[in-house]
Amino acid sequence: MDITFRTYELSDRTDLEEIFLLNTPKYFAPEELGDFLEYLDIFGDDYVVAVVDGRIVGGGGYWIRSSDHQGGLSWAFLRPDFQGTGVGKALAVYRIEQIKASGGAKMILVETSQHSFGFYEKLGFKLLSQQPDYWAPGIDLYSAVLELE
Fold first, then answer.
1. Angle (deg, nearest 10), helices 13-22 and 32-43
2. CA separation (Å) from 88 to 42, 77, 147?
3. A single GO molecular function, which one (predicted)?
4. Do 104 and 66 meet the contact criterion of CB atoms below 8 Å apart?
5. Residue 2 needs a FRET pair 20 to 30 A away by CA distance; which of 41, 48, 50, 138 works?
6. Domains in the chain: how many in total?
7. Are 99 and 71 in contact (CB under 8 A)?
8. CB neighbours (10 Å) of residue 149?
9. b/e string for 124-133 if b means 16 or more Cβ within 10 A?
């Protein structure tokens, strides 16, 4: 499988919206779609699209805030038929490496749900806190951190 990553382009919006909806309501509440599209409008330069064999299969954002030496991962998802194939891990590692390469972060934060926390835990993230029904009924908030060396 040939996986490539590139910066989000406006022409990717429809594909990402479709993939987002394929992950609703298990991973995202339907009302979060507007928040995601607004995120792309504002922070699209820091959103990475995963492409396999010329097809967009998912994406994920990242941020770096040098004022307090924090980085973060946001809005990551894949087409359901690509979950468990290694694409998600490669996408997460790529974004972590982008944050590390900036030299501006000592830790990486992620706010996810109980459905995805185990994935991040395998990458070394440690749970900071959790809050039931935060994103929507049945979708809890799991805040986690990865300390950088």
1. 150
2. 23, 8, 20
3. acyltransferase activity, transferring groups other than amino-acyl groups
4. yes
5. 41
6. 1
7. yes
8. 4
9. ebeeeeeeee
Task: Quote the distance between the C-alpha of residue 38 and its chain's center.
Answer: 15
3-class DSSP assignment, residue 112: strand
- Strands (E) in the chain, as ranges, are 3-7, 47-52, 55-65, 70-78, 107-112, 126-136, 139-147
What sign results for the dihedral spanned by CA atoms 18, 142, 90, 97? Answer: positive
Place of tokens 């040939």: 2
How, if at all, do strands 47-52 and 139-147 pair?
unpaired
* Residue range(s) defining the domain that contains residue 79: 3-147
| CATH assignment at residue 113 | 3.40.630.30
- Model-level pTM? 0.93
Say how far apart CA 52 and CA 2 lie, in whole Å. 6
pLDDT tens per residue across all 149 residues of the chain = 899 999 999 999 999 999 999 999 989 999 999 999 999 999 999 999 999 999 999 999 999 998 899 999 999 999 999 999 999 999 999 999 999 999 889 999 999 999 999 999 999 999 999 999 998 899 999 999 999 97
